[in-house]
From TrEMBL:
Cofactor(s) in the UniProt record: heme
Keywords: Electron transport, Heme, Iron, Metal-binding, Oxidoreductase, Periplasm, Peroxidase, Signal, Transport
Binding site for heme c 1: C94, C97, H98
Gene name as annotated: ccpA_1
Cofactor binding mode and count: Binds 2 heme groups.
Annotated GO MF terms: cytochrome-c peroxidase activity; electron transfer activity; heme binding; metal ion binding
Annotated binding of heme c 2, by residue: C239, C242, H243
InterPro entries: Cyt_c-like_dom, Cyt_c-like_dom_sf, Cytochrome_c_Peroxidase/MauG, Di-haem_cyt_c_peroxidsae, MauG/Cytc_peroxidase
Protein's recorded name: Methylamine utilization protein MauG
PTM: Binds 2 heme groups per subunit.
Organism of origin: Posidoniimonas corsicana
Length: 373
């Protein structure tokens, strides 16, 4: 049965059931208890087999064909991910803007880059990026391997002047002695640094939320409020128009009309990559898994809470030109908004517990310290 025929069948069944059980002169339901066409009992019966928007359990983590995972490569990537020495002034690592203590993201609206200067966008979470297609808000990187080295070479971020300087530092670091030869069969290169970091990032996966337990067959895993929120999500709020699939994202780019100010006023989003007018002001749909841990929200970090996000969509998004036709006023009631937020919080699962490595100064830095430089 196709997706559309399933929706049609479900709608017909619910409509018939409603018509058969309500007297003809029955007054309409109170606004706070609006009939959305799916009852909690209906939801419990369908959750483990099919949900609108193809929501469900995540598949196995995808791996790049040219970058197979090994324990040694993942551990090498872990060391590189947290290593401040991969920035020009030894002050930043990948974890500076994507820290496990903050949902593998940044609690600041916009991260601080090289020299403490504010960057242009909010740092998205690393959680489940293995399931993404294009990486970054504008999709300029095609995969995790390409994404991993982007910030290292960015003048606004880690500010390394050349691939040669990156590999020079890695070769000097005692922690990496013999590691690249062991994992890749050759000395460190920028490409293999990216592959190792990407291998580690592919282990940062969340797949055991209350929602996952629910669709896995445990009808008691979600509260009634969370179930009502899921019903709102797939019906009146139309969240699956963009946040669909097992990772709660269509991996596409949409203009939400977000009002951009200050340094973000001219952020053209996906357009900067494609030069296609339909992409002007469009940004990638983020995953909603573990969304409760990754505030603030939107590409500019302008919304501080999930309640603010729901209200933003309820009002029909922002007012900037080019807003997607998918973004329209939702007319949710107060209880529906609360239920939706409760469901979004039920998408929080665990992520790997990671030991942050300790690093020794590079030999040249020890010489500077000894000479008082």
């Amino acid at each position: 049965m196709t997706y559309n025929s399933r929706i049609a069948s479900l709608t017909i069944c619910v409509a018939a059931l409603t018509a058969a059980t309500l007297p003809a002169n029955e007054p309409p339901l109170a606004a706070e208890h609006e009939d959305l066409g799916i009852s909690i009992q209906d939801l419990d019966g369908m959750a483990s087999s099919w949900l609108p928007g193809e929501l469900g359990l995540l598949p196995e983590t995808p791996v790049a064909a040219d970058n197979p995972l090994t324990p040694e490569k993942i551990d090498l990537g872990r060391h590189l991910y947290f290593d401040n020495r991969l920035s020009m002034d030894n002050s930043m690592s990948c974890a500076t803007c994507h820290h496990p203590d903050h949902g593998w993201a940044d609690p600041r609206p916009r991260s601080l880059g090289f020299g403490g200067l504010e960057l242009g966008r909010h740092s998205p979470t690393v959680i489940n990026t293995a399931f993404n297609g294009p990486q970054f808000w504008d999709g300029r990187a095609h995969g995790l391997e390409e994404q991993a080295t982007g910030p290292i070479m960015s003048g606004a971020e880690m500010n390394m002047p050349s691939p040669e300087e990156v590999t020079r530092r890695v070769k000097l670091a005692p922690e990496y002695k013999g590691k690249f030869e062991e994992v890749f069969g050759e000395a460190a290169t920028l490409e293999n640094i990216g592959r190792a970091i990407a291998a580690f990032e592919r282990t940062v996966v969340s797949r055991d939320s209350k929602f996952d337990e629910y669709v896995g067959g445990d009808a008691s895993a979600l509260t009634d409020q969370e179930k009502r929120g899921l019903i709102v999500y797939v019906t009146k709020a139309s969240c699956t128009a963009c946040h669909s699939g097992k990772n709660f994202t269509d991996n596409k780019f949409h203009n939400l009309g977000v009002a951009q100010e200050g340094p973000l006023a001219e952020d053209l989003g996906r357009f900067e990559v494609t030069k296609d007018e339909k992409d002007r002001g469009a940004f990638k749909t983020p995953t909603l898994r573990n969304i409760a841990q990754t505030a603030p929200y939107m590409h500019d970090g302008s919304l501080a809470t999930l309640e603010e996000v729901v209200e933003f969509y309820n009002k029909g998004g922002g007012d900037k030109p080019g807003k997607s036709d998918l973004v329209k006023p939702l007319n949710l009631t107060e209880s529906q908004k609360s239920d939706l937020v409760a469901f979004l919080k039920a998408l929080t699962g665990s992520t790997p517990k990671v030991e942050i490595p300790e690093y020794q100064p590079l030999p040249e830095e020890e010489d500077k310290l000894a000479s008082g430089g």
